[in-house]
Amino acid sequence: MALSIKLSTLIPVDLNNTVSISAGSGVTAVTTTTSSISTTSYSLGPNSGVQATIATITFTPSTGYYYYNEPRLSISSPYVSSYEITKTVSRDSSGRVISKVFVIKYTNTVGSIGDFISFYYELKTLEATLNTFSQPLLQIDSFNLNSSDVPSTGAKRFFTVKGNPNAYFNLKVTRASDSKTYDFTTDSFTTSATTLKNQKIGSSGVYSGFIALEKVTADQSFTIELSPSIELGSTLIENLQDSTNQFTSTLTINQYKIITVTISPLTAANSSHYNDLPSDILIKAERNSKSLIKKIIKFDLSLSANSFTFERGYAALEGAVNPIDFRSILVKVKNGNQAAGTTVLLDDVDDIAVGMAMTGTGVTGAPRVVSVNAVTNAVVVSVSQRAQSDSGMADNANITFQYGGSSTSKAISGCEFYLDNVSAAGSSAGYVYKAASLSPVKTAVNDTSVNGSDGVVVVDDDAGIKAASTTFVSGLGIDASTVAPHVDTVSTNTITLSANQTLDDNTPLVFTGSSRSANITVGLNISNIGTKDHTLHFNLDTVLKVS
């Protein structure tokens, strides 16, 4: 009984090889070809249960090529077991595939329609085996160079090239910033094209040298290209070759400048009351250095008017510092006029982290970042924003994002830090107590009528003395037998104390708990300097109150 067999083979078209098809006896074969695929349809009607040869398909690379991935096939048919396919592979002396033959046979017991056999392969150019003098090529087998990041201070990077004795190579080093090349004679970069050219590997099979990279003040990268001296009969082993060029082996080395973390005192609310703020403190280290840096942050502060008290903490009249007082600040540009809602579009959202506070002209309320979308350059904030037409944010407005603590600086620059002596338990957890102190205010009685009838005392100068239950007075003759007297009112050198006093004129007095002079001292430990320059703004306003 005759049954119908219909089969198609799908073979990719590549001009660098030849695929020949020989149909079996009694087989009708029709081939159609596009630019990318050759399809051959086969049909025959053999007797049931009788094996028939459908086709013999031979793959042969063109001169100068071999099969990098030898031809393979996959069968799409409900009757795969009915096919018998034999494969014969031919290789050259180097084991590379230079021919493969498939014989496709089929035994039908049922009709078959719509079967497919798909072939796939990958060709590659044969390496030359002889130089221009018809001499065998000598092989370069390895190139060893430490390609890890170079310190900002520079370094010598030693290299070795291994291969057949008498093989020749070239080595070129290019600096990315200015395209200058390395001169191996002067160990410097020059505008003229310089190369370590036609270097011979000696009888040991090893060539050794070095590249001297100097100190940098800006990030830099270098491209190192090893190539064989083809004209002198040398070649690269296959695993050294670049994917796009068999005659080069390329490495890249990065060198980064010193990273600077700046500790800068900041006051947004009271800048007009301060005398000159202390200078910034600079901390420097190699990029991404995880060597612990311990630094005492000390700020001596003074006011031109008003007085300091503490925003938090009165233990021993010394205030507290929290890691979130070290704030990271980003300024972004608004993209488009704001529409009413919680979504805010920006020119970019680089380094913005969830939890940051958002401020700026037109910002509604005190929103924080809820989510960040780097694709749309949008942030969602916790407070719905007014439309620009309703006094909301305008296009191109500068919008500030900030928050404190190590996690924020890590998100922005990789910088990680912690403070010494942070309380770990109870309501005081997270604070460094006694990190802020106020200088005592020293003055003298300028009053001959302090006779115990009241607590009113005229003093020489009331600068820095604030009326508060936490501003206390001490001195010769001060009566503190029942309660430590504090300052109830202050008015043009006239102080009203909380307890009646009897004092002599010119008696020295000391007031604590308020002052025009303050000191902040806290131990800062940087455990990772990060990957880019960063400023930690120390927020004076969360530690010291100016009133």
In short:
With 547 residues, this protein is mostly beta strands. It contains one helix and 41 strands.
Task: Write structural notes for this entry.
This protein is mostly beta strands and 547 residues long. It has four domains: 5-125, no CATH class; 138-255, Macroglobulin (MG2) domain (Immunoglobulin-like); 327-414, Elongation Factor Tu (Ef-tu), domain 3; 440-514, Elongation Factor Tu (Ef-tu), domain 3. 1% of the residues lie in helices and 51% in strands. It has one helix and 41 strands. It has a six-stranded mixed sheet, covered by helices on one side. Strands 33-38-35-36-37-34 form a six-stranded antiparallel sheet, with no helix packed on it. A five-stranded mixed sheet has the order 3-4-1-9-6, with no helix packed on it. A hairpin with a 4-residue loop joins β28 and β29. The longest helix is centred in the C-terminal third of the chain and has 8 residues, at 406-413. The relative contact order is 0.11.
Helix content: under 10%
Name the beta content range. over 45%
- Overall outline: elongated
Q: Order of strands across the widest beta sheet?
A: 21-20-40-25-30-27
Low-confidence stretches: none
> How many structural units, i.e. domains?
4
Q: Give the total of beta strands.
A: 41
Cα Rg = 41 Å
- What kind of sheet is the major sheet? 6 strands, mixed
**What distance lies between the first and last C-alpha atoms, to the nearest angstrom?**
109 Å
Question: By helix and strand content, what is the structural category?
Answer: mainly beta
**Count of separate DSSP helical elements:** 1
Rounded mean pLDDT is 92
